[in-house]
Design brief:
GO terms for molecular function: copper ion binding; electron transfer activity. It comes from Pseudomonas parafulva. Pfam families: Copper-bind (PF00127). A five-stranded mixed beta sheet has the order 1-8-5-2-3, with no helix packed on it. Strands 4-10-9-6-7 form a five-stranded mixed beta sheet, with helices on one face. Helix content is 24%, strand content 35%. The protein has 156 residues and is an alpha+beta fold. The protein has one domain: Cupredoxins -  blue copper proteins (Immunoglobulin-like, Sandwich). The protein is built from three helices and ten strands. A hairpin with a 2-residue loop joins strand 2 and strand 3.
Length: 156
Amino acid sequence: MKSLILSAAFAFVSLPALADGAKSFAFGEPAPASTATRTVQVVLKDIAFEPGKLQVKAGETVRFVLINEGKLVHEFNLGDAAMHAEHQKEMAAMAGMDHGQMDHAAHGHDAANTVLVQPGQRAELTWTFRQSAPIEFACNVPGHYQAGMVGQLTIE
């Protein structure tokens, strides 16, 4: 009986993560790293991305290797300007929390299009781009986007 209750609790807690992980966006969806046709390294600095602009092709699957060389926690988030604005509201609501000590799931926004990278750490995000759309890659930790930690991603 105890294992049945634990199994049910685990299944219930897993539902939002599974549903979110399956979510696709107009510009594409997450993909397994093994399906990547190209790898792009992006360095997260305080407060900038290198490179600051990226180009991909519609249909291409890109494995982003993210390296945080900064002293602050940063985020790599793919989306359009409206998505970033909404995500910034979520992040601002959590401004009292210590972002440097949290993992991404603890933020409550472990969407497939975003990765939180601790200082000195590496992370990956693999994405299949479906169609041309004006999107950005950005850090939505409070104040970072406004300070210029945003880049343009062109889908050809």
